[in-house]
Amino acid sequence: MHDKIDTQTEENGDCSCAGTCPNVPTEALLSLGPVNYQSVIPVIRIFVGKYRTYPSTLEATTDDDALSFHATTILNYLRDELHHDINKDCIIRTYDRKIKKHYARLRVCDLGNGIMISMDSSLNADTQNPNKLLCDYPKDYFLLVSDMQIYYLPEHDTFVQELASQFSKMTIFSSKSSTLQMVCKNQCGYYLSGIKIKKPLITDLALHYGSNFVSTHDKIIKNLNTKESKGIVLLHGIPGSGKTHYIRYLIQEIQDKTLIYVPPDMAKEISSPAFLPFLMEQQDAVLIIEDAENIIKDRNESSTPSQAVANLLNLSDGLLGDAMHQQIIATFNCDLTTIDPALLRKGRLIANYEFNKLDVESSKILSDKLGFGSEGITEPMTLAEIYNQGDNKNEESNN
């Protein structure tokens, strides 16, 4: 990146920018900006008043909805690399009762070179912090930027894009969550109880599961987000390879559908005569069944064929499937050859994917990304092994 750049305005030279209005009175020029409200900083009006030019604008965004810019890291960069005096910023501070302090909710940085940066920030303690950043306030609160706009003179377009690229590396993972409806049972029958599931720290699927998995994920998410659809997704592989971790990620990407979770101890209930009538009340839903080995095994290999398999077949591609439009995600650890072959039939199967260990090079890259380093990695590793290196008190299981 560069130091401050000299710019030309109407006061120090010729400027032929489309937004420059040299003959317009100052009062009329300021009216070009949005109406000024007490709770916001009128950045465009400030820019117009200072440079007599309506600015170009770049909206800085992250690559993932769960990633937020870290305000303190950005400010340190502006101070250390661009020699910006952050004490001269225009700030609106807000009092927060949880931390019992005032914090900068709105901030405008004028780099003094025809570039202004506007940051709208909020406090968040619900974060994942693999880069081990120091929290900004007590109780592990971080100051996160929810909206950032860069206003600039047109000649700085390349510089501003480079600046935004630098900012994209200054992020922290704010935990997004979705609600799963878990199947429960009491003396009155089956019912659903909502549970919150946080989105795991996956910003690059290829990094976590290999490049071959990306096309499979795209196919899965396209089908699950299709209204009035049906079918089954089979996810299998060795323990710790990331099946549950992926499902936590996947459910955040499913839009406008009820997500029904069948815990392992309830999976056998799918064979119950009362279970299907219960499910009929939840049309256009996604059914998630973990550790489904005992209900998907080949019926020809059992002396007592499972009604659960028949029910799954009917839900995924039978008359019930046509009426209820439910889709099924089933995870299991057993070998694919032991499950009922009818589940694999074309037209019924949305996707079938086997999770495994990451190769050595991929394991090293992911380990580095998570802040563990890679010196001790000499053989393929599962996601669980990579995530639970060192102090694993706060790490989740990645089965």
TrEMBL record:
<dbReference type="GO" id="GO:0005524">
    <property type="term" value="F:ATP binding"/>
</dbReference>
<feature type="domain" description="ATPase AAA-type core">
    <location>
        <begin position="233"/>
        <end position="354"/>
    </location>
</feature>
<dbReference type="Pfam" id="PF00004">
    <property type="entry name" value="AAA"/>
</dbReference>
<dbReference type="GO" id="GO:0016887">
    <property type="term" value="F:ATP hydrolysis activity"/>
</dbReference>
<dbReference type="InterPro" id="IPR027417">
    <property type="entry name" value="P-loop_NTPase"/>
</dbReference>
<protein>
    <recommendedName>
        <fullName>ATPase AAA-type core domain-containing protein</fullName>
    </recommendedName>
</protein>
<dbReference type="InterPro" id="IPR003959">
    <property type="entry name" value="ATPase_AAA_core"/>
</dbReference>
